[in-house]
Write a structure and sequence with these properties.
This protein is an all-alpha fold and 224 residues long. Helices cover 83% and strands 0% of the residues.
Length: 224
């Protein structure tokens, strides 16, 4: 029953039902603690931390991850997953150095276990850190490595998301021409994969980029 409650956390959070998601995570955590299952307690903490991140509460998320860390020390995959999440929380708290260190450690562990999909997500997050610091070459290198991993792992949905994020990063550092080209290139894939929210965000980004370049008619079409 506790495992079932834990499995409900992500779908509830994805629906925006954050209070319900947190309640399920806490109920599962209490049950696992009563059953003396420390690894499952840690997994509940990781899921609860992810809900806090989705609510833009990085300090609370980090507290959950730190609480889980000792219990998963013997599980390199779960520890890497936790460090990947910690990296995002640290980045949101304005500590890119610690965030990059956590994500680099997660990436090395995912590599060692041959987990290309998880490694690609870590590469994508490292790319964002580099982009925000103005390190364009490093950002593009991380995006390219993430792309190759997802192609090997035959993960077309995540690949489309990564390509959209790369366009966002290009726009964030002022390369609006390349960003617009990247958004145009990925939109057919986002539409084909049924990724409506991501496609809408890409069209919003494309519209802004076109508007900034005085292409008003095309911008209005994209925004509509």
């Amino acid at each position: 029953a506790a495992r079932a409650r834990l499995a409900r956390v992500h779908p509830l959070a994805s629906l925006g039902r954050f209070d319900d998601a947190s309640a399920e995570a806490n109920a599962a955590r209490d049950a696992f603690a009563a059953l003396n299952e420390p690894r499952l307690v840690a997994q509940a903490d990781i899921n609860l931390g992810a809900v806090h991140e989705m609510r833009d509460e990085p300090a609370a998320a980090l507290a959950c991850y730190d609480r889980a860390r000792l219990a998963v020390a013997g599980d390199p995959v779960l520890l890497a997953e936790l460090d990947s999440n910690r990296g995002l929380a640290l980045l949101a708290l304005g500590d890119p150095v610690a965030a990059e260190r956590a994500l680099a450690g997660a990436l090395a562990a995912f590599d060692a276990e041959g987990l290309d999909w998880a490694a690609a997500v870590a590469e994508e997050n490292l790319a964002w850190i580099a982009a925000r610091q103005g390190r364009l070459a490093a950002a593009l290198d991380h995006f390219e490595r993430g792309r190759r991993r997802l192609e090997r792992d035959e993960a077309p949905v995540q690949l489309a998301r990564l390509r959209a994020d790369e366009a966002d990063a290009l726009a964030a550092i002022g390369m609006t021409g390349r960003a617009a080209e990247a958004w145009r290139g990925v939109l057919p894939d986002l539409d084909a994969r049924g990724l409506a929210a991501e496609a809408a965000e890409a069209r919003l980004g494309l519209g802004r980029a076109l508007l900034g370049r005085q292409h008003v008619v095309h911008a209005a079409h994209s925004l509509d």
